[in-house]
UniProtKB/TrEMBL annotation:
Classification via InterPro entries: Sm_multidrug_ex
Segments crossing the lipid bilayer: 30-47, 81-104, 139-162, 174-193, 205-225
Recorded superkingdom: Archaea
Classification lineage: Archaea, Methanobacteriati, Methanobacteriota, Stenosarchaea group, Methanomicrobia
Keywords: Membrane, Transmembrane, Transmembrane helix
Protein name: Small multi-drug export protein
Organism: Methanoculleus nereidis
Length: 238
């Protein structure tokens, strides 16, 4: 008996066949993203005291509703005492679940009342993003990663996955871009927040000064971006 006869471990081709099966693909693609999200909350429930579990669960839920986003949820969680690696892992896995749901179930999700409205707002944001950046279609992969890295508000994973669909990219490329952008931005925010918290504990004045400088810089960048997009829209013929 050969080794192939005694092993039943599914290979890549087996998983592809499973996802192309018309009777199994639909339920798997719809349920798996929710299962990943549920697994995150179950893991947090098992490793965190109950009160801390409730707080971080609330932060993760707020992550999906603007104006909340990585740039606010991650620093808040770090300041509340959660380890940077835990916050990073939770946010990235949530982005993985969201991007999988969008790339697999986009047309179906548009028909779901609450989710459909969120996706429609993401489509609007994606179109505005591409209209303001015509070079994006030539550098779609880099542009998609940047959108997830700099979401400014709301989950960049959802808007990034929607933008990938609007650009006509295949689902695996979209998913890879979202994962790369999410991991890079989450790590940068978590490690930066952790370092700023250490600085504040050692020198509160310096810590507050650095935070104030960052806030002013971000607000100035956002205002400049909004002004530039407004000028582009005014120049675009209707």
């Amino acid at each position: 008996m050969s080794a192939d006869d005694t092993t039943n471990i599914p290979g890549p081709e087996d998983w592809r066949d499973l996802l192309t099966n018309p009777y199994l693909a639909g339920p798997i693609k719809f349920i798996l993203p929710f299962a990943i999200a549920l697994a995150i909350f179950v893991a947090l429930y098992l490793i965190e005291p109950y009160q801390q579990f409730l707080v971080i669960s609330g932060l993760l839920a707020a992550y999906f509703f603007p104006p909340a986003g990585k740039e606010s949820i991650i620093p808040i969680a770090i300041m509340m005492g959660y380890p940077w690696w835990l916050v990073t892992l939770a946010i990235v896995l949530m982005d993985v679940a969201v991007s999988l749901f969008v790339v697999w179930n986009f047309d179906l999700a548009l028909k779901i009342p609450l989710i459909g409205r969120l996706l429609e707002s993401g489509m609007t944001a994606g179109r505005n993003y591409t209209d303001a950046r015509p070079w994006l279609r030539r550098f779609s992969t880099i542009g998609l990663i940047l959108l997830v890295f700099f979401p400014l508000q709301g989950t960049g994973a959802m808007n990034g996955a929607i933008l990938g669909r609007l650009l006509g990219l295949d689902m695996y490329r979209v998913f890879s871009c979202v994962c790369i952008g999410s991991l890079a931005s989450s790590l940068a925010l978590a490690l930066g927040s952790d370092a700023l918290l250490d600085i504040y504990h050692q020198n509160p004045t310096l810590g507050i000064g650095i935070v104030a400088a960052i806030v002013v810089t971000v607000l100035a960048a956002v205002a400049s971006l909004k002004l530039r997009e407004k000028r582009l829209r005014e120049r675009t013929p209707r």
